[in-house]
Write a structure and sequence with these properties.
This protein is an alpha/beta fold. The protein contains 19 helices and 13 strands.
Length: 556
């Protein structure tokens, strides 16, 4: 049937949209099924390593993975094409109604069935310039033809997408796997806008995504724009490998210690150090060195072990590992709850001396904020993230320098942008909270660029790099900046009056944000007070929860 104005007029965009939703839903079901098939069959070669039947099973499993995986993108593309066509039809129908209404009000007769516009004879009789009537008719006909041409273009485009992506009657969507994702592919995504990374990741088949995660977990795990659940899988692989490596090193050290002790007890150290003039001295020196190695390994194991135990704790809310890097002082990002589905998302940035070995303290604070949001919230779900994605100052003297915040700010901006890009459904209410030097890092992230957050909270802050809340660039305004510093917090003396080390005190009324109450803390223990904002009974906890759950107007 050829496309006419009558066909366009009578077409139901809602019916097209319904079919679009069906294809999109099928794509999602296929995606879920593909992940189950991949998880259920990827270890076949390991558990059934040899034999003709095993080889046949490997081959069939590979074909099945490819077939179901390759079906995802075609279904998704058909759904997208139908949805776009439905939107176009709806828009063109509105234009068509506007044109016919305008023509009718001007006195012309419009026949949608025949696609004609005519002027009654009286219009020619009542004018001294009948050619202008003909020109008006021609103009309306031209407008209608333009609408019809655009409808035909949309129809052809949609039909083309459907034709190209429909499965072959004999071979389905094809059993050939697409080319694997390379390291270069993943590295080329680093630094791109997270929304573009999300679009690229979604363009991969489930099998390609799984292959990228398994082959390059250290790259996928830190890629902002990749969904949190996929980052979690990748980072757990990196975490497990790191734990296995550290434990292996520790076992080797302890085995060597045990061996040396046994040889010393047997008086056989000369066999261990045949070229030494002083075997006992060589023994003591090596034992001292081994002890230092073991202590270093124990320290390096603290953070990964803490994270591993928290991820597997069945008595606490599920957590996702969104970043893990053991190099140097270490970096880690853990979310209590899934930020891609939560109604509220809070990102907590810790400060001076924060590192991987001491990550347990920051992880506990994330748990506290999640629990408080459940208590003081209005029913929506909350994801609480601890973001140690930067190199925090190692000591208080280093915290007087701005370069730690300057270096960490771009990564924080990218991460927050990634949360927006991967969130499902309506946008979540996002808050970023910085404690101590972490507030400085948050401040620089909002000072030197735009930070994707609805609210900012500064707790125990030495300054945030600006002198006014209006100088911070984020999704909210000055009224959405909150701050609190305990009366006896040692940080309160970090400067002259309200001129802190890194700018105006954000807890000062002159800064332009909102102040909220925290417990005074002990005059005799100002360092302890600096870390007590998340302690039981501290009013700061309720106030933080109110901001996180979008009730900032209730803080006190």
């Amino acid at each position: 049937m050829s496309l006419t104005l009558k066909v366009l007029w009578d077409t139901s965009p809602e019916a097209i949209a319904t079919r679009a939703a069906a294809w999109t839903d099928m794509a999602k079901d296929i995606d879920d099924a593909a992940e189950e098939v991949i998880r259920g069959s990827r270890d076949v070669e390991d558990v059934w390593p040899s034999g003709a039947a095993a080889e046949a099973a490997w081959k069939r499993a590979a074909e099945l993975r490819a077939e179901v995986s390759n079906a995802y993108n075609p279904c998704k593309r058909i759904g997208q094409a139908l949805r776009e066509h439905a939107d176009t039809v709806r828009s063109l129908q509105e234009q068509l109604r506007d044109i016919t209404t305008s023509a009718s009000k001007a006195g012309f007769d419009v026949d949608i069935a025949s696609g004609t516009v005519t002027a009654p004879q009286r219009m020619y009789d009542e004018t001294t310039a009948p050619h202008t009537v003909a020109q008006q008719v021609s103009a309306y006909v031209g407008q209608l033809q333009g609408v019809l041409d655009r409808a035909a273009e949309s129809d052809d485009r949609c039909a083309g997408v459907i034709t190209v992506n429909l499965p072959d009657p004999r071979s389905g969507f094809g059993s050939l796997s697409l080319r694997p994702v390379s390291k270069q592919d993943l590295e080329s995504q680093k630094g791109r806008p997270p929304k573009d990374v999300r679009a690229w990741w979604d363009s991969l088949t489930p099998e390609q995504q799984e292959q990228a995660i398994q082959d390059y977990p250290e790259l996928v795990g830190w890629l902002d724009g990749v969904p949190a659940s996929d980052r979690d899988v990748a980072n757990r692989i990196t975490l497990d490998r790191n734990l296995a490596d550290l434990n292996s090193q520790r076992t080797s050290v302890m085995s060597r210690e045990d061996y040396l002790k046994a040889m010393a007890e047997q008086g056989r150290l000369g066999e261990v150090y045949p070229e030494s003039m002083n075997p006992v001295g060589s023994y003591l020196a090596e034992m001292d060195q081994l002890e230092k190695q073991r202590e270093d390994l124990d320290n390096r194991l603290k953070g990964p072990t803490t994270i591993h135990n928290r991820l597997g704790d069945p008595n606490k809310p599920p957590a996702l590992l969104m970043g893990f890097d053991p190099a140097g002082d270490g970096k880690a990002i853990v979310s209590i709850g899934d930020p891609d589905t939560a109604d509220n998302v809070v990102t907590y940035v810790p400060g001076t001396t924060s590192d991987l070995p001491g990550f347990g303290t920051d992880l506990n604070r994330a748990d506290v904020m999640r629990a408080d949001a459940d208590i003081y919230g209005t029913g929506g779900s909350t994801a609480s993230i601890v973001w140690l994605g930067y190199d925090a100052p190692d000591a208080i003297p280093n915290a007087t320098k701005a370069h730690y915040a300057e270096d960490g700010a771009p990564a924080l901006r990218q991460f927050q942008e990634g949360l927006r890009a991967t969130h499902d459904g309506d946008p979540s209410h996002n808050t970023v909270i910085g404690h101590s030097y972490g507030s400085t890092t948050v401040g620089y992230a909002a000072k030197d660029g735009h930070l994707a957050a609805d609210d900012l909270i500064f707790v125990g802050s030495p300054g945030v790099g600006v002198d006014s809340a209006t100088e911070l660039h984020f999704d909210g305004g000055a009224q959405d900046v909150y701050a609190s510093t305990a009366k006896n917090d040692i940080i309160a003396g970090a400067g002259l009056d309200d001129n802190m080390v890194h700018g105006e005190n954000p807890d000062n009324p002159g800064f332009g944000g909102r102040q909220f109450t925290s417990a005074d803390g002990s005059f005799w223990h100002p360092i302890d007070t600096h870390s007590q904002y998340w302690d039981q009974g501290n009013p700061s906890r309720k106030n933080i929860a109110l901001v996180v759950t979008g009730q900032g107007d209730k803080v006190s």
